[in-house]
Every structure is written in structure tokens, then in C-alpha cells.
Write a structure and sequence with these properties.
It is built from 1 helix and 7 strands; from the N terminus they run βββαββββ. It has about 110 residues and is mainly beta. β6 and β7 form a beta hairpin. It starts with a strand and ends with a strand.
Length: about 110
């Protein structure tokens, strides 16, 4: 599936003055990924899933998606699947070398 990565950020003018209110801006578009919908069977196979996780996404670790606890973020990144936004909750880069496994939940922002 192709997904889009968005980040909550502020736009600035040439003098670094903020322009408007912060909003989600596209960081990367048309990112190749593997997406799985979380069902009961997947929850039994992977006990590390959060109770709020609705989708698991695997993509290359060269993609600019940041961990939710990154101090430079105003809010966690967002991944758009089929036009619907989902919040990045967890990024696992240990289980699959060279890939991120990302847990997503419904984005209510």
C-alpha cells in the first residue's frame, strides 16, 4: 500500500516568524509499505500490541517518521491510509532489521 507521512508543524516566513496556526504538513508521500489490520488472531500472535492499535505498518527505515516521544515533535506523526489519518503510537526498529514496524491508532486530532 502507498501511505503518506504527515507531521504537525508550524510554517515560518523568511524572517522565521510563524505563519498561521500549526497544522499537519506532508513530509513524505507515496511511501511503499506493508499494512496489516489488527484482528483477534494478530493480537494472539503478537502480545506486544497496544490495546488501541488498529493497524501495523512496515516500511523502510529510510522514511522520515519519528518516534512519538521525540522532543522535537509538537504532536506524534500521522500516517494516512486510504485517505484516513492514523496516529503513530510505537515504532519498533529491532524486530525487522532495515524496517520500521509501526503501530497505529485512530487519529482523533
Amino acid at each position: 500500500m502507498f501511505v503518506k507521512i504527515q507531521r504537525y508543524s508550524q510554517k515560518y516566513d523568511g524572517n522565521y516568524n510563524p505563519i498561521g496556526d500549526p497544522d499537519f504538513l506532508d513530509i513524505e508521500t507515496e511511501v511503499h509499505s506493508f499494512v496489516r489490520y489488527v484482528n483477534g488472531q494478530l493480537r494472539q500472535e503478537d502480545p506486544g500490541l497496544l490495546p488501541t492499535t488498529t493497524h501495523v505498518v512496515r516500511l523502510q527505515n529510510a522514511v522520515d517518521v519519528r518516534r512519538p516521544d521525540d522532543p522535537q515533535l509538537l504532536r506524534p506523526d500521522r500516517i494516512v491510509l486510504n485517505g484516513r489519518p492514523y496516529q503513530v503510537d510505537v515504532i519498533d526498529d529491532i524486530q525487522f532489521p532495515g524496517l520500521y514496524q509501526i503501530q497505529l491508532s485512530e487519529d482523533m486530532r
